Every structure is written in structure tokens, then in C-alpha cells.
């Protein structure tokens, strides 16, 4: 059973890192599931405190990933249409021009959303697009940081258990 748990943990850690960049996959959540898998292995020395702390960090980053775009859109003066456009742009960017579309999608989507909402203020729409882009970069950075941290924690269990 340890082999199955170890393989699952490693695959989930890899998917977690990928998911930190690809908006469709919940990167930190997948990485945390990998940590739970490795914690269930008989050789693991992962304690309950580590699971609770990383669970809290995962929850906080996941919530922030949903709250941050709306907060940044409002901070940059955006409307609900800009936030919706940024979300649609992020998803469309995956399929339209990967990997550049992943970066530019939220910006373009927010600008288009704001222009649909108020087509007379192009400068404002671009400002909201910049805010949306910054939100995407910050959110992705946080998710990537946490996902890599979880992957390192998982890999460390293999070396701790070997008696090193």
C-alpha cells in the first residue's frame, strides 16, 4: 500500500505544481491531497500539526485566489463586468494561445468586459485590465509557492524515512 500512496503523492504533487499555473486545476489542493497520501504511508513522519498548518495555508491561498481578482478589480476601479471578463479571459487563454494566452487572457478579458460595461472609457478599461493581470500574477505566484512547498515536503518524506 505504501507504494500506491507514494506514487499517488508524487503524481498529485506534480499536478499541484502544474495546477498552480493552469487556472482549471486547483494546484494547492492537489498538492495537499498528495501530502495526505504520503502522510498515510507507514514510513511517513508527517505529524498532525504539519497537516493542519499546510491545510490552513492551502485553504487561505485557495480562498485568496477567488477573492483577489474581485478585490484588485475594485481597487483599480473595475466593475462586475470586468471581473467576469477577466475570468472568461483566463479560461479562454488556456485554449486560444497557450501559454501566452494564460498570461494575457485575464487582461484582455477584463478590458473587453469593461468596454462592454462602459464602451466610452478605454483608459479606464485598460487600467482595470492591468489590475486583473496583476491579480493573476500574484495569485499564481502564491499558488506556485505553496504547491512547490508541498512537493518538497512530500519528497522529503522519502529521505527522512530512509534513515538519513
Structural commentary:
This protein has one domain (2-160). The longest helix is centred in the last third of the chain and has 39 residues, at 122-160. It is an all-alpha fold and 164 residues long. The protein starts with a helix and ends with a helix. The chain has six helices and no strands. The chain has helices at 2-21, 27-40, 48-75, 80-96, 100-117, 122-160.
Summarize the structure.
With 164 residues, the chain is mainly alpha-helical. 83% of the residues lie in helices and 0% in strands.
| Low-confidence regions | none
Tally the helices. 6
What is the number of strand segments?
0
What is the radius of gyration?
Answer: 19 Å
The H/E string reads: HHHHHH
Percentage of β-strand residues: under 5%
List the domain count as a whole number. Answer: 1
Q: What oligomeric assembly is this protein in?
A: single chain
Could you give a short account of the major beta sheet?
A: none
Q: What general outline do the C-alpha atoms trace?
A: elongated
Helix content: over 70%
Q: Mean pLDDT, rounded to whole units?
A: 87
**What structural class results from the helix and strand content?**
mainly alpha
Instruction: Compute the separation of the termini in Å.
Output: 23 Å
